[in-house]
Amino acid sequence: MRLTYTLSFIILSLFFLSSCKTSTKPSEGNDIEILDLPDIIEKGELKILTMYSSVDYFKYRGQNMGLQYELSKQFANSLGVNLKVLVANSESELTEKLLKGEADLIAYNLPITKSLKDSLEYCGVEVQTHQVLIQQNIKGKEPIKDVTELIGKEIYVQPGKYYDRLLNLNEELGGGLIIHKIDTDSITLEDLITQVAEGKIEYTVADNSIAQLNKTYYPNLNIKLSISFDQKSSWAINKNTPKLKEAIDNWYQNNNQSPQYKASLKRYFEISKNSYIHSPIQSIEKGIISPYDQYFKVHAQSIDWDWRLLASLAYTESNFNKSVVSWAGAVGLMQLMPRTARAMGIPAGKEMDVNENIKGAVKYIGLTEQSFIQIKDKSERIKFVLASYNAGMGHVFDAMALAEKYEKNKYVWFDNVENYILLKSNREYFSDPVCKYGYFRGIETYNFVRDITARYEIYKQKVPI
């Protein structure tokens, strides 16, 4: 009787222990381990898979950004765990890596398909994705409101899904679309959208989320016309993680109206990315650039810069508005990211103080310049420093590596490295093994350096040192 009782106790204990553990452990010859929620919490880390893009995930001025990154971070914080980001280069790679147990969650709008429902569990918010026509709103001209109106019109797209969709649409309409496949590797999707905004071409095509983001840069765009069917998409997890699915679904239901969640959506799809109206400085003829010239003169000396160059940088960053906060959270006259401000020793609460803001920016510039000391010509080195100030050093290093790979001078900015910062929004380039920092909207940095250096030349002519 005592032996029977002891055996029963052991069996019950083993059953209890096995039922408490939720992970699918690797068997012999199988190294896949799928972790459910209790294991993730015990480990203290949530691993997500996503893709580099202007919407989902990217690095900006040394800081992780992107809608999917921010929402994932909010979910990880709700669990009290750290977030680790892994990047895939395609949707098929996302699912492949998840099913191999390399991550816990695909934080990306993955299309919901029957073929994947046997192995994946879709969770969180379900969104509708589709392709849209991008055109200009022109006063006095009616925009195209129906796909039949595209017959006889010229549409410029890159190879791939956008081109394929237009070919199918052309068949559905019985022909008549004039489709230009831009297969040069030096033209990115952002380039095409910019060309539409500037009136250089009339039409291009993009996913609705990318189009919505770009409208925050170019308010004159019209993105209302859908040219494809809606595709449902959402986050995805392994089929064998029911507790994780429940946690994600509950988090979304309880937080999708929270200020933090709404702020993330607003940051990427509503807030203007060109919020500063740059107007001429009326007093420049009197030898005054801004109300803060004395600060520029004092602090520029510590890095051996012309104070007029520092003033040109500040003008581009903030239009000399000491209280401005950018869409990305950069603050003050010199638009320092909060983490950079802290690292440069700016006291908490003093981020917008003009003297502290300029002093912190100059310290950061000095440290950045040391990272490009191999560029012997100081005037040339300054261009790389300006580019890094805008983009973050990592993206500039990537552009230098690409320039070297394609036999351009990696120590010369204009017409050399600047061309490759532009191409960092092209998957073929940012996924190159020589690149370490992924996607970047390089057109902003390209224009940033050119604008500052051109204005500096004007300042040198009109304002005494």
Automatic annotation (TrEMBL):
Main localisation: membrane
UniProt xrefs under Pfam families: SBP_bac_3, SLT
SMART domains xrefs: PBPb
Record-level GO cellular component terms: cell outer membrane
CDD domains tied to this protein: MLTF-like, PBP2_YfhD_N
InterPro entries, sorted: Lysozyme-like_dom_sf, Solute-binding_3/MltF_N, Transglycosylase_SLT_dom_1
Locations listed in the record: Cell outer membrane
Keyword flag Signal: yes
Superkingdom as given in the UniProt entry: Bacteria
Membrane topology: Peripheral membrane protein
Protein name, UniProt field: Lytic transglycosylase catalytic
Taxonomic lineage from the root: Bacteria, Pseudomonadati, Bacteroidota, Bacteroidia, Bacteroidales
